[in-house]
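=== RUN LOG ===
request id: a7f3
mode: sequence -> structure
chains: 1
length: 505
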Amino acid sequence: MSRSRESGILLPLPALPSRYGIGDMGPEALKFADFLKDAAQRVWQVLPLTPIDGGCGNSPYSPTSAFAGNPLLISPEALAASGLLSEDDLSAAPLFDEGRVDYDRVRDFKGPLLRKAWRNFKRTNSRSEYERFFADNRHWLEGYSFFAALKENRDGQPWYEWPEGLKFRRHEALHRTWVEMADEIEFHRFVQFLFASQMAALRSRLSELEIKLVGDVPVYVTRDCADIWIHPHLFDLDETLAPVSVAGVPPDYFSATGQLWGNPLYNWDTMLAEDFRWWMERLRHLLTLFDRVRIDHFRGLVGYWALPADAKTAEIGCWRSVPHESFFETLRRNFPALPFWAENLGVLTPEIEALRRDLGLPGMLVLHFAFGDPSHNPYAPHNHEPVNVVYTGTHDNNTSLGWFEEDASSQDIANLSLYLGHEVTRHTAAREMVRMAMSSVAETAVVPMQDHLGLSSSGRINVPSTPGGNWTWRMESGQAGDRLAARLRALTELYGRAPAPKNHG
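=== RESULT ===
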C-alpha cells in the first residue's frame, strides 16, 4: 500500500520565539502550527521534551526522567489564561535575549511563577482533572515527583551523593522524608499536570490542522535520572550504584574520537526477564504526547558501544549485544502499527538495516553526507528509497549554509555543483539543499527551520561532544511569516507533498 508524500519542519519547542526567554507550549507554538498549515507542512518534529539538567549542558538527550515533561516549556501566558497567574505576574518578566536561551535566567524566572500557580491552584476546588491525571500516570509520576522534590530540597545534588538511606531507597528513610516533604512532592506532580494539560491543548490544535507531531526517545538517560534512582536493577551498576560501563559511539563523521555520552547502560538481562516493561511503558507514554516517535540511536537497541566508566574518549570500547529479537517481538505486540522512525546514522551493519526494513521503520537520509562520492552513496538523492525520512541536516549537523561554508570539502562542493548541473554558491546553498530534500522519493522530507531561513552556523543547535553553548538558538518573532509560508507551500505542492484537497462533493 502506497503512503502519501509529506513534508515538515524540525524546530525544537525551546527554539520558538517567546518574551519569556525560551520557546514553550503557549501562543507562539499555536502560531507556528498555523504557519505550518499555511505552508502545507504536515509534520512538526520537536526533539525530546523531557526535563533537562544544566550539568549536562541542557541537552534534551540527557534527560533526568524518561517520562516527565520539561517544566521550562510551560507557558506563562497559558497559565494566566487559565486564571492560575495574573497579568501582573507576567509583567515582572525580565528582558531576555530574543535569539538565545539563557537557561539559568529562565529557571530563575519560571520557578517562582510555577510556585505561585501552585499556591493559587490549591485555593480552587477544581481538582478532578488533576486527580485523574495523577491516577493515570501514577506508575511513573509518584517516583518522579519524589525524586524532583528531593533534588530541589538538596540544591540539585545528584541522587548518588545523597545520604545512604535515600540513595539506596531504604524504607524508613523514604517514609520519613515523604511525610516531611508531602507538599513539595505534590507541587512537582502539579507541574507535570500543567505540562500535560498544555501539551494536550497543543496536540488538539495540531490534530485539527492535520499536522503530526514527532518527538524523540533518547535511547539512554543521564546518570542523575529519576528512573535509575527508582529502578537501579534495570541498569548496569555495581554494588555502590556506580556505572560499571557507560554509553557512547566510536569515531564517526561527527567526531574523530567518537562520542563519549557517559550515560549508564542497561541491564538487558533484567529488562528481558521483565518483558521489557519499563521500555514499553516509556514508549506508550510518549505516544500520548506525539503521533510518531523517532528512536534516537536505533542501533543501541540491537548492540551498543560499551566504554569503561572512567573513559576520557570513546575510542577504546567494545560492542555488546541486546536481546533484540525478544525486544522487537515485544515492541510489535505492544504497538502493532509501529509508529516509530529509526535514527540509523553512524556505524551500521547490514543486519541492523535488514532489521529496520523488516520492521518497516523509516530510516534517516541526510543530504550533508551525500557528496563526498555521490555515485553509490545511500544519502545521495538518486539512491534514496521511499520508506525513509530525508533531511537536509539534523539537530547534530551544521545548518546547510554553515555546512557549505565551514564543513564541506572542496570536493563535496564540486560534486554538489556537478550533481545539480550548475554552480552552487553560499547564496544558493541552503535553498538548493531544501529543494533536493523536497524532490527526493523519500515519502517524508523534514527540513530544519534554520535552512528555510538561510541561516549560517550561528543558527546551529548542537555540536556533538562539545560541553557548552549548545541548545540555545531561538527563532526570532516574525521570521516564520507569510512570504516564507507561500514560498514553502509552492515548493511542497510542486513536489507532491501537500495535503490532498478536500473532496466536498
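=== NOTES ===
The chain has one domain: 6-362+443-494.
The mean pLDDT is 95.
=== END ===
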